[in-house]
Design brief:
Layout lengths: L8 H16 L6 H8 L3 H7 L3 H13 L6 H8 L4 H16 L3 H14 L4 H25 L7 H17 L1 H5 L8 H17 L5
Helix pairs in contact: 1-2, 1-4, 1-7, 4-8, 5-6, 5-8, 6-8, 6-9, 6-11, 8-9
């Protein structure tokens, strides 16, 4: 176990900033709050990070680094037997990457709300492989038939929004947390939902 004494001031600042930013966002957090929580003075915060925005970016990147995109699943997307099978794999990838990261989900939401697309290079650095692979499959599906239309990248973003929404918005409408399901079962439910939305009763 790491002792408190062995944790550097920079690590304490990052930890404090992660806790605060993920709870109340960028605008709701001051560097003074971060310094107090990290048990350092304001000058120490700025010695390690040139601005609060740079500190937020460092926090976001630290959390994004914890994501893991399974290369084996990503490969299976392109080899899927049919569109619903591909959808299931795409949702399995998204759920494994995002659903177990509540702090990251909140940070991403605050990031989009408060910074727009400024942090987009960071998102793509860590989520790009997943999003590009899924979008490439959707694009190839468009070329094989007229049944699927729209921007493939926008569709993948909509799929990711479904995963995030199930984790963060469901309690607002359902009145309680969504019952935990194994990743495969959750992916199956999401893929059925989107298949119905896109194709109704068509077999694709």
């Amino acid at each position: 176990m790491t002792s408190v004494a062995s944790v550097t001031p920079q690590e304490r600042i990052l930890q404090a900033a992660t806790d605060l930013f993920s709870e109340v966002g960028f605008s709701g957090t001051s560097t003074r709050d971060i310094a107090r929580t990290a048990a350092v003075n304001d000058a120490t915060v700025y010695r390690h990070f040139s601005s609060k925005k740079d500190l937020f970016a460092a926090v976001l990147e630290t959390e994004l680094r914890k994501l893991s995109v399974r290369a084996d699943l990503l490969m299976h997307v392109t080899n899927a037997e049919d569109f619903q099978s591909a959808l299931r794999i795409i949702f399995e990838l998204l759920i494994e990457a995002l659903a177990g990261q509540p702090r990251l989900l909140r940070l991403l939401q605050f990031s989009v709300l408060e910074f727009g697309d400024i942090m987009q290079p960071l998102y793509h650095k860590y989520l790009g492989e997943l999003l590009d692979g899924a979008a490439a499959y959707l694009e190839s599906s468009q070329e094989r038939g007229p049944f699927l239309s729209g921007d493939p990248r926008a569709m993948v973003a909509a799929f990711a929004t479904t995963v995030v929404g199930m984790q963060t918005l469901y309690p607002l409408f359902g009145g309680e947390q969504l019952p935990g399901l194994p990743t495969g079962d959750s992916a199956e439910e999401c893929s059925k939902l989107w298949h119905a939305v896109l194709f109704g009763n068509q077999r694709v």
